[in-house]
Design brief:
Elements (H helix, E strand, L loop, with lengths): L7 H15 L2 H8 L9 H11 L3 H9 L3 H10 L7 H10 L3 H11 L6 H9 L4 H17 L6 H11 L5 H17 L4 H11 L16 H14 L1
Helix pairs in contact: 1-4, 3-5, 4-5, 5-7, 8-9, 9-11, 10-11, 11-12, 11-13
């Protein structure tokens, strides 16, 4: 006898039940301090997604639940290239949990054929959270393939806006500043000067052995490592 294939509704209910079983109040307390609203250990969540494998229709249904843990699973089992530009734009505007936004950008949008179009649009969006996503994509482009980017103009914007930007947007602008200084030696002095003058994240708490996100320190350390290779 052939076992019947679960419907999407049944599959969603099963995933939600498993996530509920994985809920840990201690994990939730830690996550909430970082802007997240779920209590599932990410290693266990990844294991669940690995078992499910790629299932784009299920991913759409899981995203539609609005549950952050379910949305993280959705981002791991979806097919990034199957999302339309408008779908990705809507998802970014719906995603308010920090980890959901991070995974949406890094695991889905960067693999989409719409990534560059969205980077440009989001970077000028009036919503600071959406704009931060545009700057996250910009930082990634500066790091991996800056061809076609006006780097001096990006530094102009960082210089004018980063100091007063909301935290999330400020963080991504700072990443862009640092990557320009690290990867583009001809603009390194200017990037260092902007970072030293604005002092953004200068006092950010950094664990022992980790590099400070303060751009002048970060740039200097990464350049030092490059020169030792």
């Amino acid at each position: 006898m052939t076992t019947p294939t679960p419907t999407n509704d049944e599959a969603v209910a099963t995933v939600l039940a498993e996530l509920a079983d994985l809920e840990d109040p201690k994990v939730r307390a830690v996550n909430e301090r970082h802007g997240d609203d779920h209590g599932v250990n990410l290693g266990k969540l990844r294991a669940l997604a690995k078992r499910l494998k790629t299932q784009h229709p299920l991913a759409l249904e899981l995203w539609a639940t609005g549950d952050s843990a379910a949305r993280l699973v959705a981002l791991l089992v979806c097919r990034p290239k199957e999302f339309s530009r408008n779908q990705l734009d809507a998802m970014m505007r719906e995603a308010r949990a920090s980890k959901v936004r991070d995974w949406l950008i890094n695991y889905v949008v960067t693999k989409s054929p719409h990534a560059e179009e969205l980077r440009v649009a989001w970077s000028a969006d009036p919503d600071a959270t959406v704009r931060s996503a545009g700057w996250a994509l910009t930082a990634e482009r500066v790091r991996k393939n800056a061809d076609g980017l006006d780097l001096p103009q990006l530094l102009d914007v960082v210089e004018a806006e980063m100091k007063a930007a909301p935290d999330r947007l400020q963080w991504e602008m700072n990443n862009t500043l640092a990557y320009i200084g690290i990867e583009h030696s001809e603009l390194r002095d200017r990037a260092l000067e902007i970072g030293e003058r604005l002092e953004v994240l200068k006092d950010y708490p950094t664990s022992p052995g980790c590099t400070s996100p303060y751009a002048p320190v970060w740039i200097a350390e990464m350049v030092r490592r490059q020169e030792q290779r």
